[in-house]
């Protein structure tokens, strides 16, 4: 670029700029409903929770005494809070591991020439669209002492494994994890299936010519290619794990003896059964901070890589 | 039209629509009621009991006697009632009539202290200066908030508990009689299990307090009266009586009286369905269960439990056997009462609804007819057994009368002194007793630390 050309370029750059005033009203009109909904409902609720969290509020007409950060101190020194976080971590690791592994496997299998592929896709994806409230009574029946899981174990020579799955502190969390895995594999599958469709077939073909096995292709080509999807799933799983409520509440109520308690069920118990709304609000704010913090940290980490 | 003018018009239009929407959400008065339906005043009644069909029968009877008032009944599951009602009462959209009970975490009086409308003048107007004496002993006091002396609700009737129900048809087939003590019960359960039935349907899972009631029963069979002393804070939970109560509860699973997965089962609907389907010999329920002694109500309940063509069985009450040294007898208190929302735009109609059921013979007869509540609020009344279609009246009526007499005589309350914190601590204690190997001393120490006495 010569010195003579420079002013012309600058003029050209200014040309596409339109008056800000001309855009502003129409833009506001389009975003106003969503803006009112978000600010008026969601952010107001978050702000109101923050206010409640520094009060001793039992749900009456009066807000109660301001207690500063006492509710937060109580939460951070309460073993139930850390127990719920520990369950969240176990849940996240177990669900993510199985969901991502099985999602990749199913997606890879259905990218190969499989008969009745559409039927398999529907079968794998169906649990995603069924509401937990509908399936939970069925799962409670499936995992009951006299239920089909124990029946299968007893009739296949594995009767020593049959047990009251929902009635033991050692198994209740794993029932919740198992049900969540069942309901979420289809989601991972559909994302990986779409992601694998973006891989250039010539790369796979080249690997085959070089003598790579299916497993090697999956491990060295496919998995790295869908890394973005994997990270997105991990972030979604972190958020899902932190705000988990439906399955533990519907299956075990967080019990027995808090063995399948999560932050969601803990907050619900404090807010509803114990009407300890100030403390429950402090827990909710901690949950919000944890969810945002973890998601941001994972995004930054992924970007660094 | 210039683009920015169009934008401004669009903005104004959207803002206008939003404003209209917000106006639509505005104050309509409590429960959105206050409007007239064909010239009638409409009032809304929210409750956790009775079931919808019985509630509608109550409403039909009231509307027949009070044609100028239309009532809409909304029924909630026990666990949903308080979470739904609390914000409704805070808003201007709450019901005109709601239900309050003496204690506990479903509708206990202590949950609603900010929302009382004093019903003393209405009761006095209906029954005269000596109105308190016309109710069953204790009921008015149990619905009066002690700190202010406000009568929060008018009692519909009473409830008795710490008892069991049994399937007499099944026991007769097996040649068994209700047990007198623990050892006899264990022996019976072997016979019942060998015949392919469940001995006692029990659901101690979830956050309902039915498991707690069984723990109370076992503890009270060691020392009757200890439980209420502990609830009030007059006795410690770290007490040998409570330890033994926990041990007996545990042994009931080990000895086959209750099923091993009781902690994974909920009393409603699962244990209830097992009993109503005729698959279990015993269940722990209170006087409210009398309604299923009737043929039609039992058929409906059995169908709901999955039995396509049910054959009603003879359902009988059983007082608690000697489980730990004593037969503890029943506990009883006011079941629940009708409260009036102070924000109601129809206080007069709401008070009429509350007083008609609780202070008139006509209203009380409607309540007693359905057996959902068998203990009347008004002294001197009782169910008209000739009107009720029981499966075997010759056997059932005398037993039901004895049960109601026992409930009316007891002075031990059920949930009056149960705070939410203690209720939650006891629910967890039952779970620990049945799902862990923690010692009774460890379990009791946690209850003692978490409980909040309610004197």
Describe this structure in words.
- The complex is a heterodimer of chains A (305) and B (455).
- With 305 residues, chain A is mainly α.
- The longest helix of chain A is centred in the first third of the chain and has 33 residues, at 20-52.
- Chain A has 14 helices and no strands.
- Helices cover 72% and strands 0% of the residues of chain A.
- Chain A is globular and about 75 Å long.
- With 455 residues, chain B is an alpha+beta fold.
- Chain B folds into 2 domains: 30-157 and 335-387, D-Maltodextrin-Binding Protein, domain 2 (3-Layer(aba) Sandwich); 161-332 and 399-450, D-Maltodextrin-Binding Protein, domain 2 (3-Layer(aba) Sandwich), CATH 3.40.190.
- Helices cover 44% and strands 14% of the residues of chain B.
- Chain B contains 17 helices and 13 strands.
- Chain B has helices at residues 3-24, 52-65, 78-90, 120-127, 139-142, 168-173, 182-194, 210-220, 226-232, 240-254, 267-276, 295-304, 347-359, 361-369, 393-409, 420-435, 440-450, and strands spanning 36-37, 40-47, 69-75, 97-100, 144-145, 150-151, 154-161, 163-167, 198-201, 280-283, 315-319, 331-340, 375-376.
- In chain B, strands 1, 2, 3, 4, 7, 12 and 13 form a 7-stranded mixed β-sheet that branches. A 4-stranded mixed β-sheet of chain B has the order 9-10-8-11.
- In chain B, β1 (36-37) and β2 form a beta hairpin.
- Chain B is globular and about 65 Å long.
- Chain B starts with a helix and ends in a 5-residue tail after the last helix.
- The model of chain B is unreliable at 8-29 (pLDDT under 50).
